Amino acid sequence: MSKLYFKYSTMNAGKSIDLLRCNYNYIENNKKTLCFTSSKDNRYGLGKITSRIGLSIDAIVIYDNTNIYDIVKKEKDISCVFVDESQFLNKKHVFQLSDIVDILDIPVMCYGLRSDFKMEPFEGSKYLMAISDNVEEIKTICTVCKKRKAIVNVKLLNGKILLDGEQIEIGDKIYQPMCRKCFNNEKIK
Questions:
Q1: Which residues belong to the active site?
Q2: 92 and 63 share one domain
Q3: What per-residue confidence (pLDDT) applies to 50?
Q4: Is 68 part of a structural domain of the chain?
Q5: Strand pairing partners for 11?
Q6: Which of 83, 86, 103, 171 has a C-alpha 20 to 30 A away from that of 109?
Q7: Are strands 152-157 and 160-162 parallel, antiparallel or unpaired?
């Protein structure tokens, strides 16, 4: 029985490398996969899933009007669908992924952030948390205290925490994972 999986974390926790590892396991066992990523993340080039350690694969780009279900339905013998940067999906995309699981009987593994720098859920993450069969956190530690689990994606400008601005601003160097306690201590400085 196929399932819809959502693996979430803060920035810098290894989501993409986990996706690449799982995808490789399928391919190594002569299984066919499809990999998708959001058009909103072009840090390493459009249609690329890239880890910070340099591993990379090509992926199908998801735009706001992309019908993921139709793309997968046209393919033959797909063993698993992988989605990187799933926080950028819209509600329609998430329900297309559940249709891939429920109608086509293909497992779907999504990787993304749970919330933004304002601690607000992303649309894709909100619906994935609501309807996924399996939700798993990929943990990382706070970059300030180096002890507690990071749960906040802190947005920085010149070392100062930003509390306002656009929800989506792509870039590894402007975000830092922190625990809630350090975030609250840092933002009042």
A1: 85
A2: yes
A3: 86
A4: yes
A5: none
A6: 171
A7: antiparallel
